[in-house]
Amino acid sequence: MAADGVEEVLAVLEGRWKILILFHLFSRSVLRFSELEKAIPAISQKMLAQQLRDLERDGIVQRTVHPQVPPKVEYALTDIGQKLCPALDALLEWAALRKSSLDGGR
Amino acid sequence: MAADGVEEVLAVLEGRWKILILFHLFSRSVLRFSELEKAIPAISQKMLAQQLRDLERDGIVQRTVHPQVPPKVEYALTDIGQKLCPALDALLEWAALRKSSLDGGR
DNA sequence: CAGTATCCCCACTGATACTG
DNA sequence: CAGTATCAGTGGGGATACTG
């Protein structure tokens, strides 16, 4: 059954911030740690670092360290990460659909 | 920004079991409470009931009580719930893609 | 059959402080 | 700048028992 696939996706995308992080990487393509912090004000450094590590471990984001002082680290989607975009888009489309049906229905 | 949409989706689909439940309703169309229990052995009654209430409250699943003894309650996707299917499919496709790229890559 | 009601735990998350 | 270390709290979720 395809339920295995569901579990896979769930395991990889679970976590309060991952989809939000992916969304920002999706629309801006390359972001530094501090830029992600600014983009998602509610997230703590610890959580940002942790979720980025998870996403990196799962092969969804690419972490690039530029050997400089001060340090510069950039995050971008990997190839397979890019391919998540259509699915995230479908989710957003559905959200829009739902919102309009909610408004139209009253 | 479309980030609002992300938050919406997150709020509605959050919870360890919702997407799994939706997947089963998606493939079987109508299921009784006990059928969902069998389909998702790892879920507890409490969680199943709770997540179904959430999904019902958010207008994604339709709960139908048949006045009988013993009780019979059926769950199905609403109209807007049905429209989530393409997005879930995209997620599953991505999972398959990812799995094959993982296998092929070694 | 289809749920509630209770109790309880620990994993996720946050806040703060520190560092290469 | 880009993290790690440490401590502490909360509530999401599990186990069990009970009910219309």
From TrEMBL, chains A, B:
<keyword id="KW-0238">DNA-binding</keyword>
<dbReference type="InterPro" id="IPR036390">
    <property type="entry name" value="WH_DNA-bd_sf"/>
</dbReference>
<dbReference type="InterPro" id="IPR036388">
    <property type="entry name" value="WH-like_DNA-bd_sf"/>
</dbReference>
<keyword id="KW-0804">Transcription</keyword>
<dbReference type="Pfam" id="PF01638">
    <property type="entry name" value="HxlR"/>
</dbReference>
<dbReference type="GO" id="GO:0003677">
    <property type="term" value="F:DNA binding"/>
</dbReference>
<feature type="domain" description="HTH hxlR-type">
    <location>
        <begin position="3"/>
        <end position="103"/>
    </location>
</feature>
<protein>
    <submittedName>
        <fullName>Transcriptional regulator</fullName>
    </submittedName>
</protein>
<keyword id="KW-0805">Transcription regulation</keyword>
<dbReference type="InterPro" id="IPR002577">
    <property type="entry name" value="HTH_HxlR"/>
</dbReference>
